Amino acid sequence: MKKLANEALQRKTVEEFKQASKNPLIIVLDNIRSLNNVGSAFRTADAFLLEAVYLCGVTGTPPNPEIHKTALGATDTVSWKHFKSTVECIAELKQQGYTICSVEQAERSVMLHELKKYPEKKYALVFGNEVYGVEQEVIDSSDLVIEIPQFGSKHSLNVSVSIGIVCWELVR
Length: 172
Prior knowledge:
Blueprint: H1 14-19, E1 23-30, H2 35-47, E2 50-56, H3 65-71, H4 74-77, E3 79-83, H5 86-95, E4 98-103, E5 110-111, E6 122-128, H6 136-141, E7 144-147, H7 159-171
Parallel strand pairs: 1-2, 1-6, 2-3, 4-6, 4-7, 5-7
Helix pairs in contact: 2-3, 2-7
């Protein structure tokens, strides 16, 4: 096997990305402090052709060199919006018909591999702060909570890893 050169990958241009039909999925970042994690969310949203990344609370916004370092230009392709609070963001998304899914460990959470996906639905995935996770008030406003099964001694994954895992599962 020979590794493919970038030219052979036939990636979309910025304009082609903006014009393309998107997967009906929005990433919502609930008070994410690491700008590298924010950049990674943009890059994942670009890779999976998602609708947008919504940045809430203290989450940093573009343009920012730290975000750009990991986004690698995805802030130019992926739509984004900032909200003062995640609850405000969720209220707007619900009005637009999105199913709100917080990604967290909670009572009655649905394991990711057991999640029933409905192609006609639009989803907003809420990912929480690196230390505190998704705020309880946000979980209370969610339609469901998705949990990524884990089998080791640690009780969490890096938020950027979680974003990649959950987004892949929903778009595959």
